[in-house]
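Researcher: We're reviewing a set of sequences before deciding which ones to prioritize for further study. For each one, I'd like a predicted 3D structure that I can look through quickly. This is Cupin domain-containing protein. If possible, include the structure in token form so it fits the rest of the review sheet.
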Amino acid sequence: MPQTLTVVRNAPTTPLGAPTPARLPVGEPIAQAATAQDQTDETVGASIGVWESTPGTFRRHLKNREFSHIVSGHCTFTPDGGEPVELRAGDAVLFPENCEGVWQIHETLRKTYVLF
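Model: Here's the predicted structure for Cupin domain-containing protein, in token form for your review sheet.
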């Protein structure tokens, strides 16, 4: 049986969908986020795509594990009960299952992601 690959192409320049306000903002400005190429592969139970956010601070409230590669921008993520982690273009990060915390986007951030 042939295997099918799920691919995100041209992440730095792919056009994004309509931006929406962060779901759990913390103060002003309220970040605006958008996605592109969101694809789910039910056979492996994962979703991939491109995500971008404008500057702002908001809570991360995802139960999934997530692997992300930062394509552009700069942010700080502070996991609940943990130390702040700065992320910049070229960095990769693995969020464990049930990792909650606060995103502080300093410069518009674009990343590719895998939720699983």
